[in-house]
Design goal:
The protein has 130 residues and is an alpha/beta fold. The chain is 48% helix and 17% strand. The chain has five helices and five strands. Strand 3 (50-54), helix 3 (62-72) and strand 4 (80-84) form a beta-alpha-beta unit.
């Protein structure tokens, strides 16, 4: 399994990594980036099974990242989680326009994270076994 975490905040990336590790994801399955260009380069080379992306970031924002990513891998729409501290922000609308349907609000609560992410992790694990 390859999970991409894209956020310009190291703290947020570490929190998401911790939540994922508590769901049984190992550190060698996690790939963390602060820059959308780096994340896209990694995905082009190695692929991805799930993506977490902040909406507001320097250099390349989340909706620009999602637009490029979905042109490369449309199947990632179903396992793409947009993250933001600003609900109702125009970025949410643009993410929805790009096909994103899963959102996590900062600060991310572990219960909320587990509710939405655990089922997707289980699906990916089952797919690995078949």
């Amino acid at each position: 399994m390859k999970i991409i975490i894209l956020d310009d905040s190291l703290t947020v990336r570490m929190i998401i990594e911790s939540f994922l590790e508590n769901l049984g994801v190992t550190s060698d399955e996690l790939f963390s980036f602060e820059n959308g260009y780096e994340a896209l380069d990694h995905i082009k080379q190695y692929g991805a099974d799930m993506v977490f992306s902040d909406i507001n970031m320097p250099y390349m924002n989340g909706y620009e990242f999602a637009e490029i990513l979905f042109k490369m891998h449309d199947s990632l729409k179903s396992v793409f989680f947009a993250i933001s501290g600003e609900e109702g922000h125009e970025g949410f609308v643009k993410m929805k326009d790009n096909g994103v349907r899963r959102f996590l609000k900062k600060p991310i609560k572990v219960e909320h994270f587990n509710h939405f992410v655990r089922p997707e992790i289980l699906k990916l694990r089952l797919a690995e076994l078949s």
